[in-house]
Design brief:
By secondary structure, this protein is of the alpha+beta class. The chain is globular, with a radius of gyration of 14 Å. A 4-stranded antiparallel sheet has the order 2-1-4-3, covered by helices on one side. The chain starts with 9 loop residues before the first strand and ends with a strand. The longest helix is centred in the last third of the chain and has 11 residues. The protein has a single domain, classed as Roll (Chitinase A, domain 3), CATH 3.10.50. The chain contains 2 helices and 4 strands.
C-alpha cells in the first residue's frame, strides 16, 4: 500500500468587511483562479500555496480582480481580502 501526497482541495474567496466595526459584508468565490498570476500580483514566493489571508490594497489588485471575476470593489468603503477555504 502506498500513501500518495495530495494537495488539499481549496477554493479562493474574496471577502469584504466594513471599515468601521469590521462587520462581514459579503463574499465571492473565485472560479478558475490562475494561482501563478495571483502569486505574482500579490508578490508571494512561487512555492507559497497562498493559504493565508491577503489584503486587497492596491489598484493593480482591484483592477485585476474586478475584470477577471466580474467583481465591483470599493476600497474606500470596505476592506477586501483574498482568503482560502478548505472544501
Amino acid at each position: 500500500m502506498s500513501i500518495s501526497a495530495h494537495k488539499p482541495v481549496v477554493q479562493r474567496v474574496v471577502r469584504w468587511y466594513a471599515k468601521c466595526g469590521n462587520d462581514f459584508i459579503g463574499e465571492k468565490v473565485l472560479d478558475n483562479v490562475n494561482l501563478s498570476y495571483l502569486k505574482k500580483l500579490f508578490r508571494v514566493e512561487s512555492n507559497n500555496p497562498m493559504y493565508e489571508c491577503y489584503p486587497i490594497e492596491y489598484c493593480e489588485h482591484k483592477n485585476y480582480l474586478e475584470k477577471a471575476f466580474n467583481l465591483k470593489i470599493n476600497l474606500e468603503l470596505y476592506d477586501y481580502f483574498i482568503e482560502c477555504d478548505a472544501i
